[in-house]
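Field guide to reading this record: the first block holds the primary sequence, the second block holds the structure written as discrete tokens, and the final block holds curator observations. Each block starts with its own label. This record concerns diguanylate cyclase, catalogued under organism Shewanella loihica.

BLOCK 1 — SEQUENCE
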Amino acid sequence: MRLNHFLNILALGLLLLSFLTASGIYYLIYLPRIEEQVISRQDRDLQAVQKGIAYAQKNLDTLCYDYAIWDDMVSFVDNVSPEFVTKNLFDNAFEAANVDGFYVFNRQNQLVWQYRSGADFDSQQLPLGKVGVAGKLLPSKVEVDTGKPSVRSGLLRMGSRVVYFSNVTVLPSNGEGEVAGSLLTVRNVSQAIHEEIEQFSLIKFDLEVLAKPELAGETSLGFRETPKVDEISAEHSWFLHDALNVPSLKITVIHDRNLIPSIFTVESILMFLSVLVMSYIAIVPFSALVVRPLRVANAVLDKMAHRGVLLTMPTGWAITEVAKLTESFNLVVEKLERHQNYLESLSFNDPLTGIANRRSLEVFAERAHKQWREGKGAIGFIMLDIDFFKPYNDTVGHQSGDQALIKVAQALMLECRRRGELVTRYGGEEFCVVIHGDNLAQMELLARRMLQRVRDLNIYHQASPYEIITVSMGAVLYDGYHPEFADDDWQHMVKLADEQLYQAKESGRNNLQILHRKVSPLFVVG
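BLOCK 2 — STRUCTURE
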């Protein structure tokens, strides 16, 4: 049976039964009766918070207006006097009123005096150079020329901060005469204001100053615009922009969860019981045909993730797609395992020769040794040393010596390209080859091919009796794991190969010595 046929039959039965029962109970009886009420209540929550945000700015309007209709302020704007500041505009008064910035502008909207509670509220942080400041942040020329009182208030972005602001034109207290200028007061939208609004509205909400005045695909509301609830949710968010339409705040109202429709009612319990019965009808075949293969696959993937090994999955499943999926997975595992050694060899390269370095040898040899102990094939090591390399360096120089090392390394790489083979630079002119999975004949064939490959480079070496660069090799090969070799780690194997290399040098160099480690057969004596 194909997976889509099975799922179609199962889905059709579940849909027919669950749709008639669950939808009838939930959508026709339960939900409509309370959804409208909840939306209305959540809408009132949003309005209460919005009004609280707007109300928190009223004190600033009052303060700014009181200063603006002060007759002495008219004279001060026209003629800024340090004596007036000392007697009337002292810092304590602004601190007591929770004002973070107080700025005095003349008729041309030029700053003539300022107070700020900190560097963040310096007049340089005011966006006075932006288009639209006149009329939105400061009075326009028309408002100044007409001589009528005008007020502007709302939110304003000052650098990384967002503040309430209030701007009132400065006029004589009788309201007659020309406009002398305007006053701008600001108060930081701080945690204290947040708490004040929560106490005023009795609604819990989060107030976040936007790090960047940008919104991707979102719209923002004005300071006094009221958001609307479109659907029931545990929380609702909206953005506020300042007087210059710069997105500044994100407001998130957290609603009382007790108001959100609960599924734990008599109607909902009946609905879920009906769904449970219908699900039980289909659970037996579904579990046998779909869930069990998925559980097996999950177990295999979990072992792979935690043990760091590649495993295959069983393929004998009734559903065609599941069986093909596991077969394809096993093919991928096989390819990954085939390329794993090669990929690891690329991750740690010797900077001179470009082949794997000592660290790569440790990682590769450790894994090969582990697999060998698990009974997965043979393991072997070949130690190589360039014959008479120091005299070669002394004769031709270190740069030519480095070039010879590179050529020898690349020649060895050309022969060690199969899965389970890794050639590494062991140190100086010495190389080490790790072989996993070969037998003795294959290892000897590989070693002799490497000997010949180096000879074929035909690099002249006047200090060598062979007159060309050659290598000496010592190797050790262990057949499949046996408890007799339980104490032999891969470092010990490398040491044995190095001893064979010493014997190869003693026997004239340019040759190979192999030690074959295998379990001696037992003979029955009769």
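BLOCK 3 — OBSERVATIONS
Residues 358-517 form a domain with the Alpha-Beta Plaits fold (CATH 3.30.70.270).
DSSP finds 14 helices and 14 strands in the chain.
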